[in-house]
Amino acid sequence: MNLYDIPVTQVQGVKGKKAQELLALGLDTVGRLLDHYPFRYEDYTLRDWSDVKDGDKITVQGTIVGVPQLQMYGRTKSRMTCKVVVDPLFITAVWFNRHYLKDKLRTGEEIVLTGKWDQRRLQLNVTEVEFPGQGPSRTGTLQPVYSITAGLTQKWMRQTMSQALAQFSAAIAEVLPPELTQKYKLPPRRSAVTLLHLPGNVEQGKLARRRMVYEELFLFQLKMQAYRALNRSRADGVAHPVDLPAVRAFVRALPFRLTDSQKKVLAEILHDLQQPYCMNRLLQGDVGSGKTVVAAAALFAVVKAGYQGALMVPTEILAEQHKRSLDRLMEPYGIQTALLTGSLTDRQRRETLGAIQMGLVDIVVGTHALIQEDVFFRQLGLVVTDEQHRFGVQQRSVLRRKGMNPDVLTMTATPIPRTLAITAFGDMDVSTLRELPQGRKPIKTYAVAHSMLDRVIGFIRRETAAGRQAYVICPLIEESDKLDVQNAIDVHAQLQFALPECRVGLLHGRMHPSEKDEVMRDFSEGRLHVLVSTTVIEVGVDVPNATLMVVYDADRFGLSQLHQLRGRVGRGEHQSYCVLIADPKSETGKERMKAMTETNDGFEIARRDLELRGPGDFFGTKQSGLPEFKLADPAADFEQMELARDDAAELVQRPDFWTAPVYAPLREFLQREHIFDNELLD
Ligand code: ADP
Ligand code: MG
Fold first, then answer.
1. Residue 526 lies in a domain
2. Does 290 sit in the ligand 1 pocket, CB within 6 Å?
3. Domain count of the chain?
4. In this structure, what CATH number is given to the domain that contains residue 64?
5. Is ligand 1 within 6 A of the CB of residue 258?
6. Cis link prior to 332 (omega < 30° from 0)?
7. How far is CA 580 from CA 397, 470, 535, 570, 597, in A?
8. What are the backbone angles phi and psi of residue 425, rounded to the nearest 5°?
9. Counting atoms of ligand 1 from 1, which one is nearest the CA of 386?
10. Of 339, 405, 636, 649, which shows the fewest CB atoms inside 10 Å?
11. What range defines the domain where residue 388 resides?
12. Is 172 inside a domain boundary?
């Protein structure tokens, strides 16, 4: 009997309107209903006075010693008090608008009271009563609280869960193999599910939760690991014949020596390129750690092997910049690059597309336009994406439909805290750049109040007089692109006035792409001294001569974003500075400024950012890439997640995992999750 095939209406008492309400919650089968765990519990365990504090919600048992005193206010409103001894205290129980209880309060009887404790008056504001020995009792238990619709009540939901368990708990099957339940001393699934809904006491509730959290994390990781294992065994990628001596020569010809980190990561990538499976690798590293040149070497290797490469970036400005730096690197080898962005004219686009299709172009740099339906490569071997979110299912299947199955390298602009990486990127191999190139001076960071603006402008003047350049990021007004632009225009005018000897440029999101590129080019080639910009500048821009980053309203930016902004400077030989103008009274701002001035380490910043904002906000809501868990919290349950990952990875490596009967439930789970379905495998 599979509970996920049994309609929820098979539970006694679930019909009509109530059944509709459950459907609205997505609880259409008994299996799903039982998977709808409470999000918290009401605690009816009996307390003694030793650990009760004023304002606590408590449940106590005592003896009625007085006669109830009732005051009516009109026909329905009332206040009733009654003296009760809860050993050793003599307390006053208070009820509002519950005068119908009066006749039940008989001197000498035992009573269980739940309510809020008022220590000063020795008074309990009662929300619930029970009389011991009269009917079923919740005293001493935890009562589950579910997320429900307005058409349902907690009481009905509790009853329905109990009923469902009474009818169907025998059919709750184990999914975890015995080796794992034994390893972690986990209760069987059946009793864990039962205890989550009907916990006897706190201890049992905790044990049940631990079991289900592990199961949830394990199944999630199993999916990831099975997916990886299958991707590898399917071997439908390109095994590029990498010309290692040529790549080595390419690296030697660079104007600098690769860091050890860069060498190691490049070796990992080159290894993947030579394998017959599709590379699915994440390259993460702090800003300025030199990801681009690693990607360039990988693209070089693929081109030398006879394939084409693509570099996908989030903005046109970045596309332009990468195109220019790739040209510098690739020209000596006769490698052809092309730009494919939304701002090409129809004719330019047609010509570029033709050249790509005929294989006249080796490396294409562009925004998302790059993998649209009308772009055909002759032989695409590697896609590199330089952006925060990953190369998604859809993008892969667009390529696959065109008969291409390239290796994919995803570079992140923000280091992902270890605690999230194995959740968000569980299906990928991860390469990390752990060091910055030698000789970089740490950026000096200062947090100042807006009243110091004159001194900040003086600072800009000094840096530009010394031949350096400065960025000024404008005040941010949430959800108002228009006001942000206005702010940028204002700040630009103000700085032009205050710094007559400087050429001050302006960059914002409402400018035409070609205007933006022109401004950006002027700045990167030194024709502008100061660049006033909205956050469009944020990712990836590389102007080594820029040494000063000024951020207005720094308290309104997330930590990772501030770190990204700061990473625009400190890319050359000169000492660089970051000045954060923040409201000294903003609490969140204070935390962030503290973190920014204390550390330059992107991984540390990311960790603190996660702490301050939680996993959902860390990625931003839109592209979180984080799966939703019912019970587990990917950040807080990180250690469990690591164990689950190792267990899952180990299991899918074992040949008997794919055949032994004991793993059948896990294989069925993978089947249900479409892991074996080719199209969805991405
Ligand atoms: P990010 O990882 O932030 O994308 P970039 O790839 O833009 O960093 O590199 C930052 C700067 O450091 C660039 O100007 C790049 O040329 C330079 N760079 C990269 N690797 C090295 C190295 N090993 N030694 C010195 N400079 C390097
Ligand atoms: Mg970069």
1. yes
2. yes
3. 4
4. 2.40.50.140
5. yes
6. no
7. 43, 13, 14, 15, 9
8. -125, 35
9. 4
10. 636
11. 244-274+290-412
12. yes
Per residue in 498-535, pLDDT (tens digit) is 999 999 999 887 888 778 878 988 998 899 999 999 87
How far does residue 377's CA lie from ligand 2's centre (Å)? 25
Least confident segment among 333-337, 378-382, 453-457, 637-641: 637-641
For residues 306 and 334, membership in a common domain is answered with: yes
Ligand lying nearest the CA atom of residue 294 = 1
Strands 77-86 and 69-73: antiparallel
326 lines ligand 1 (CB under 6 A): no
Q: Are residues 463 and 402 in the same domain?
A: no
Q: Whose CA is nearest to atom 23 of ligand 1?
A: 258
- Residues 106, 15 share a domain: no
Asked whether residue 668 is assigned to any structural domain, the reply reads no
Nearest residue to 361 (alpha-carbon basis) of 315, 317, 299, 403: 299
Over residues 10-65, the pLDDT tens digits come to 999 999 999 999 999 999 999 999 999 998 888 888 888 888 889 999 999 999 99
546 and 577 assigned to the same domain: yes
Q: Is the CB of 293 under 6 A from ligand 1?
A: yes
What is the Å distance from ligand 1's center to 292 Cα?
7
- pTM here is 0.74
432: Cβ below 6 Å to ligand 1?
no
Residues 337 and 307 in one domain: yes
Instruction: Indicate the pairing of strand 123-130 with strand 110-118.
Output: antiparallel
370-403 pLDDT per residue, tens = 877 788 999 999 999 886 555 666 676 677 777 7
Is 628 among the domain residues?
Answer: no
Residue 304 shares a structural domain with residue 382: yes
User: Residue with the nearest Cα to atom 5 of ligand 1?
Assistant: 290
Q: Where are the alpha helices (DSSP H) in 620-661?
A: 638-653
SS3 357: helix
Q: What is the pLDDT of residue 681?
A: 40
